[in-house]
């Protein structure tokens, strides 16, 4: 993701320059920096954040590194676009929310990029317009052709479902209060021990129902579909209706996006352009906040608990009003 984000910042986003790159693997950072005019590799991530030439930071290191690096960004007062997850557990995510709130200004945006996808944005506008009446149910499908060998059952919740958790909160403007994960018979093609597919059932504060089919070893392509059922009709996105071609033999069809980069490329670009613009304007954030990262972490923690027990689990979150500025 870091390499992707550097490429988008240097080629497609206006108003930003990549001046410092850091990676645990020094040669990787040096190689990337060498390809960009005026860019340097800095060996220590905390030095990179503190560097006086750096006005704003993109964090695309693995989740376990985020807490320390986010705290450094807050300490230096630097706006940061942090890839999801905010941190890897609920307690540290809450701590980050509190530390930012104490500063009295927003500095953290979390990389839930689906909010910037034009189809999700259209769906949100439709719901907000009231044309569909009150939304009652959300059906989601999240399928990957394959995942790396290190991907385990909890990661299906933390790395995949986390996006639908944010989509739910984004579309419905309310918190998720309980979650149940059901693991039906596993796909024989899934690696040994991986619970795949999984079905997630979420309930929101006002009692709305959300179900998500998560299936990360389909061997087919990247399929993300979202359907809202409301009082006055329903609406669906993610059908991948691009070019439809007729072939000899009487076959008609199109192509499904192979991966998340192709499906959400436009969303990442829009996310970055709006973030860069927000940093320039002094607002620093134009998208999901640290609170959104904390809320997603809380729902996913309850989801992992449910994956182990098979039972519905209540989501435990602090009252937002108890943290002024959060
Ligand atoms: N928004 C999305 O759709 C999306 C998609 C994929 C990944 N992500 C997120 O992006 C982040 C990175 O994921 P990835 O798939 O690119 O991981 P990756 O493992 O492919 O790359 C991580 C990079 O960080 C470097 N690194 C590791 N520890 C470091 C440290 N302490 N300091 C500096 N560099 C360090 C590694 O050397 C590696 O180059 C994760 O938080 C992940 O959840 C988000």
Describe the structure.
The protein has nine helices and 14 strands. It is an alpha/beta fold. The protein has a seven-stranded mixed β-sheet with strand order 11-10-6-9-8-7-14, with helices on one face. A three-stranded parallel β-sheet has the order 3-4-5. It has a two-stranded parallel ribbon with strand order 1-2. Helix 5 packs antiparallel against helix 9 (290-309) and helix 7 (153-172) packs across helix 9. The model has no long low-confidence stretch (mean pLDDT 97). The site of nicotinamide-adenine-dinucleotide has 18 residues, from loops. It comes from Mycobacterium adipatum.
Summarize this structure briefly.
With 326 residues, the chain is of the alpha/beta class.
Which stretches are poorly predicted, pLDDT < 50 over at least 5 residues?
none
In sequence order, what are the helices and strands, one letter per element?
HEHEHEHEHEHEHEEEEEEEHHE
Overall 3D geometry?
globular
> Roughly what is the average pLDDT, rounded to an integer?
97
N- and C-termini, Cα separation: 27 Å
Structural class: alpha/beta
Arrangement of strands in the largest sheet: 11-10-6-9-8-7-14
Function: Involved in the oxidation of myo-inositol (MI) to 2-keto-myo-inositol (2KMI or 2-inosose).
GO molecular function: inositol 2-dehydrogenase (NAD+) activity; nucleotide binding
EC number: 1.1.1.18
Catalytic activity: myo-inositol + NAD(+) = scyllo-inosose + NADH + H(+)
């Amino acid at each position: 993701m870091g390499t992707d984000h550097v490429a988008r910042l240097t080629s497609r986003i206006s108003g930003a320059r990549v001046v410092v790159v850091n990676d645990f693997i020094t040669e990787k950072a040096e190689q990337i920096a060498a390809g960009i005019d005026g860019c340097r590799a800095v060996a220590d991530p905390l030095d990179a954040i503190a560097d006086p030439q750096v006005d704003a930071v993109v964090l695309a290191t693995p989740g376990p590194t985020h807490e320390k690096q986010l705290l450094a960004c807050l300490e230096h007062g630097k706006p940061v676009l942090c890839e999801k997850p905010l941190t890897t557990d609920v307690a540290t995510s809450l701590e980050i929310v509190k530390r930012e709130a104490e500063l009295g200004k927003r500095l953290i945006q979390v990389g839930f990029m689906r909010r910037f996808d034009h189809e999700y944005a259209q769906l949100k506008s439709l719901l907000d317009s009231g044309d569909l009446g009150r939304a009652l149910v959300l059906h989601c499908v999240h399928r990957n052709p394959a995942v790396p060998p290190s991907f385990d059952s909890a990661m299906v919740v933390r790395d995949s479902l986390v996006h639908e958790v944010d989509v739910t909160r984004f579309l419905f403007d309310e918190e998720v209060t309980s979650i149940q994960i059901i693991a039906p018979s596993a796909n024989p093609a899934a690696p040994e021990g991986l619970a795949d597919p999984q079905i997630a059932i979420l309930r929101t504060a006002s009692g709305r129902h959300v179900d998500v089919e998560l299936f990360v070893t389909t061997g087919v392509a990247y399929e993300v579909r979202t359907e809202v059922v409301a009082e006055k009709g329903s609406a669906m996105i993610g059908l991948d209706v691009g070019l439809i071609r007729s072939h000899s033999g009487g076959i008609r069809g199109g192509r499904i996006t192979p991966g998340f980069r192709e499906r959400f490329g436009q969303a990442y670009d829009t996310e970055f352009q709006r973030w860069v613009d927000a940093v320039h304007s002094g607002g620093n954030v134009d998208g999901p906040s640290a609170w959104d990262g904390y809320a997603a972490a809380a729902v996913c923690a309850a989801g992992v608990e449910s994956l182990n027990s098979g039972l519905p689990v209540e989501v435990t979150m602090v009252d937002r009003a108890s943290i002024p500025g959060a």
